[in-house]
Write a structure and sequence with these properties.
Layout lengths: L3 E4 L6 E2 L2 E2 L3 H10 L4 E5 L6 H10 L9 E3 H12 L4 E5 L2 H9 L3 E2 L6 E4 L7 H12 L3 E4 L16 H12 L4 E2 L5 H11 L6 E5 L2 H11 L2 E5 L18 E3 L13
Parallel strand pairs: 1-4, 1-11, 4-5, 6-7, 6-8, 8-9, 9-10, 11-12, 12-13
Antiparallel strand pairs: 2-3
Length: 257
């Protein structure tokens, strides 16, 4: 039985524009040992190729086949749900590309779906138009509910905040396709060609990576190089299978391999 990894990025491989110590050695080991892996990110702005280029700047050389984004999960989900469907999109390049590749037509009037992703290029006027479309019957999809880091100077409002604004204005709850949704957790596993028992999730966030992995029956590894800390773990009804300081502390083969 083969084994593979779904690996979060921000807080696991890098922090902002800085590589986390040892992350390059960790990825090089996976490549040398031919261990299947994919970076699994909730950020829907970048295409897989753009993610590859960012990693290259940080000293990690991979290919687009090593990247799976919430935009890719969203495009596949909508393509499966409504072949040749239509969508009004509040989002950027990665999301627009994925929807197009999955046969979804982008429209400005009477869409079947309103799709929300990260971005700074849409206005309140566009948000109001989306609200009107949802009130008129369009289905509301959001690529994830990642919160803002709530730091001064942060240049992105945060998709959770934008989602909440539209939900309040419409009285409709968004359907979430990104982590920890089973939609993305399952499609990312299939993207790698793995079975449930062959899949391990590596992440720094209990509410997304670890929760999503636990709910799907995957093994999980929490790294403490990002958001979560050990003293918070008692707040959760679930726990990771392994806790390490950072990815370079992961020893192979894993004890469940």
């Amino acid at each position: 039985m083969k084994q593979g990894l779904l690996i979060d990025m921000d807080g696991v491989i890098y922090s902002g524009e800085e590589l986390i110590f040892g992350a390059d050695r960790f990825i090089n080991h996976l490549l040398e040992k031919d261990i299947p892996f994919a970076f699994m990110t909730n950020n829907s702005q970048r295409t897989a190729l753009e993610v590859v280029r960012k990693l290259k700047r940080l000293g990690i050389t991979v290919e687009p086949r090593h990247v799976y984004t919430s935009a890719m999960a969203t495009g596949k989900f909508l393509g499966d749900q409504s072949p040749n469907g239509t969508a009004y999109v509040l989002g950027e390049g990665g999301l627009l590309t994925s929807l197009h590749e999955n046969g979804i037509t982008l429209v400005d009037t009477d869409p079947e779906f309103v799709v929300l992703g990260e971005g700074r290029n849409f206005t309140l006027e566009m948000v109001q138009r989306a609200v009107d479309m949802i009130l008129a019957g369009a289905k509301f999809i959001t690529t994830n509910r990642d919160p803002s880091p709530k730091k001064p100077g942060w240049n992105n409002l945060g998709i959770a905040a934008t989602t909440a604004m539209i939900e309040e204005a419409t009285g409709r709850k968004a359907f979430v396709t990104g982590k920890p949704s089973p939609v993305m957790m399952r499609s990312a596993r299939k993207f790698l060609g793995l079975e449930t028992a062959e899949t391990t999730v590596v992440g720094d966030t209990m509410e997304t990576d670890i929760q999503g992995g636990v709910q799907m029956g995957y093994k999980t590894i929490l790294v403490l190089s990002g958001i979560s800390s050990k003293d918070q773990l008692g707040h959760y009804a679930f726990k990771p299978d392994l806790i390490v300081g950072s990815v370079d502390k992961i020893e192979f083969p894993l004890k469940w391999w």
